[in-house]
Amino acid sequence: MYYKLEDVKEELDTLKNKGLQKGFDVGFNWNNLPYTIKLGSTTYIGAPPATGKTEFQKEILINLSCLHGWNHVVYTPETGSPAEVFSELCSAYIGKPYNKSSYQMSQTEMLQAEYFVNEHFTIIDSLDEEIDIIRFYDLVDEIEQARGKTIHTTTVDPWNELNEIYLPSDLGREDKFISRALGFVRKNARKKNRHNFIITHVRDQAMLSENGISYYPFPHAREIAGGQTWFKKGMTVLLLWRPPFGLTDNNSRPYGENELHVRIAKVKPKGTSERGTYIMSLDTQKYQYYFLDEISGEKTFSLRGEHNFNKKEFIKPLDISKIKSTFEEDNGDAPF
């Protein structure tokens, strides 16, 4: 495939007249987290163990559904069974536990969460087969056809749960395999006009210790397992780090108990995000991230609000009677 300038004149005119364009909003104020995404592109997320990678990704996906009505396919075997993954999505959507507890969401909230999650999320489970990256995207195509819905994003969490199939041209080298595989991920995003997320671990880091507190250091992009190929092949690359509670940063500011530092290490296409490191925190009761104004103490959550199904500007209110009929009828046609 090749192009002459005249073939893309309309796109050039847009750039000339409007400049670089941001992508789709992920729910947070640009001043707090200048990160947007475009369809036809990719985001690679790298982090040490126990950082909160999956929680962060759930927040982004739910926000995209609330704000834009997007649908997602998620492969996250480390999180648990499909039922366990769905329960966590319901909890993150409502901001209360789905599972039985003294703070469990109400029956009405449960129905609303189940309806929302069923509408926007499909989980792939690898219980019965080994899944490689090609098979994963084939399954996404099958889901899109079976559900009759456009799939806007895919998430692999984490990368090492996929089966690695080496070709002779890879020469048995991990870097060559990753380069080829990530090239396929990028091409698939462009061809299908989706945003493909890949979450991966950083390679073994030496733990640091200070005042009796052990912790992993903030990772560098080249520390993603598999080497700098991830940084070279990635469109947007995010690095996540959970700082050690009980210690302070270089400016003597104490780290918060549930802080998450998000480093936007690489940005493509230009203008969709801004490089830098941004500090957010997890509200462990609401299962939602927020930004803290350290002067006023005010918490700023994502724009979907505390109960997004009541926010008409972000998502239409749900018809409870329709939800009940969806989940109570027994005609053999269970939701996909």
Word description of this protein:
The protein has helices at 9-18, 53-68, 82-94, 107-120, 133-147, 174-192, 229-233, 320-328; strands at residues 24-25, 36-37, 41-47, 72-75, 121-123, 153-156, 195-201, 208-210, 213-215, 236-241, 259-266, 276-283, 288-292, 299-301. It is α/β, with parallel strands linked by helices. It has a single domain (28-326), classed as 3-Layer(aba) Sandwich (Rossmann fold), CATH 3.40.50. Residues 305-336 have low confidence and may be disordered.
Keywords:
336 residues, alpha/beta, Rossmann fold, 8 helices, 14 strands, 19% strand, globular
Report the portion of residues in β strands. Answer: 15-25%
Number of domains: 1
> What's the name of the CATH homologous superfamily?
P-loop containing nucleotide triphosphate hydrolases
Q: Number of DSSP helices?
A: 8
